[in-house]
Specification:
GGCT-like_sf; about 25% helix; Hypothetical upf0131 protein ytfp; AIG2-like_dom; alpha+beta; about 100 residues
Length: about 100
């Protein structure tokens, strides 16, 4: 599974250790920084976000997490909880990288 992260999940960010915790015992690695088209960054107050926006792009850190299917779903559920998806603050989207 590949995940593209920006902001606090990137290396050096306050939530980056979360990604590191899923690498234990897995063949996971940071692929690189990639420009992802069709996405724009924005900030409301002090909360960063990204939204689909034709013609814009962001730089995101792309990770390959080599996990079992069960661990992949668990990782996504935990990331959703950390990001506040259930509150409507963020939503998870599938994109092409």
């Amino acid at each position: 599974m590949r995940i593209a992260v920006y902001g606090s999940f990137r290396k050096g960010g306050q939530l980056h250790d979360w990604i590191e915790s899923f690498k234990l015992g897995a063949k996971s690695h940071s692929m690189d920084l990639r420009e992802l088209g069709g996405i724009a960054m924005y900030v409301v107050g002090n909360v960063p976000g990204a939204k689909l926006s034709e013609g814009d792009s962001i730089i995101a850190e792309v990770w390959e997490l080599d996990l079992s299917n069960a661990r992949e779903e668990s990782a996504l559920e935990i990331m959703d909880a950390v990001e506040g998806v259930h509150t409507g603050l963020y939503e998870r989207n599938t994109i092409e990288t």
